[in-house]
C-alpha cells in the first residue's frame, strides 16, 4: 500500500503523457482589465470598441465621422463611447459614440465612458471646471469603461 501511494504521482504523470492530450489556447476575451503595469491598460482597442458596439443593448447615437473600418487611416481617429446609465459595473442606457479628432464634446449627464485614446472628462461644459483623464480612472467598469459621474464635457485629443 505504501509503495502505491509513493508512486501515485509518477503513475499519473505517465498516464497524462501517454494520453497525448495537448493544451490548446482559448480565444482572447474582449474584456479589458487593468494590470497596473501597462500604461495603456485604460484604453480599449478599435476592435474591442467595435465588438462592444455590435453586441450592446444600449441605445446608441453616433456623432462625428462615420465608422468604416475600410477607410484608410481610420485608426488615427479617437473613438469615445459615453453613456448616461450605470448599473453596478455595467455601463449602458443611452450612449453616444464619437469618432473623430480633437474636440470638446458636450456630454451632460454622462456617468461612464470608454475610449480608444486617452481623453479628459470635465464637470463643466466647454471642457472647463474640474477635469480628470481616463488614464487615472478611479473606478473601472466592465468592458473597458470608467465610472465618470458628474461629467458634463469630454476633451478629445488628436490620436
From TrEMBL:
Presence of keyword Signal: yes
Entry keywords, A to Z: Signal
Organism superkingdom: Eukaryota
Residues in the signal sequence: 1-23
Keyword presence, Signal: yes
Protein name as it appears in the record: Uncharacterized protein
Organism (species): Dichomitus squalens
Amino acid at each position: 500500500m505504501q509503495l502505491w501511494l509513493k508512486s501515485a504521482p509518477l503513475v499519473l504523470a505517465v498516464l497524462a503523457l501517454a494520453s497525448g492530450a495537448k493544451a490548446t489556447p482559448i480565444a482572447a476575451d474582449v474584456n479589458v482589465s487593468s494590470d497596473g503595469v501597462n500604461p495603456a491598460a485604460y484604453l480599449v482597442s478599435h476592435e474591442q470598441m467595435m465588438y462592444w458596439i455590435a453586441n450592446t443593448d444600449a441605445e446608441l447615437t453616433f456623432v462625428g465621422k462615420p465608422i468604416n473600418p475600410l477607410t484608410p487611416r481610420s485608426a488615427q481617429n479617437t473613438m469615445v463611447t459615453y453613456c448616461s446609465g450605470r448599473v453596478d459595473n455595467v455601463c449602458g442606457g443611452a450612449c453616444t459614440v464619437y469618432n473623430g479628432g480633437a474636440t470638446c464634446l458636450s456630454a451632460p449627464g454622462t456617468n461612464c465612458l470608454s475610449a480608444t485614446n486617452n481623453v479628459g472628462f470635465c464637470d463643466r461644459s466647454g471642457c472647463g471646471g474640474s477635469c480628470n483623464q481616463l488614464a487615472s480612472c478611479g473606478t473601472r467598469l466592465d468592458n473597458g469603461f470608467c465610472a465618470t459621474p458628474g461629467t458634463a464635457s469630454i476633451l478629445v485629443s488628436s490620436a
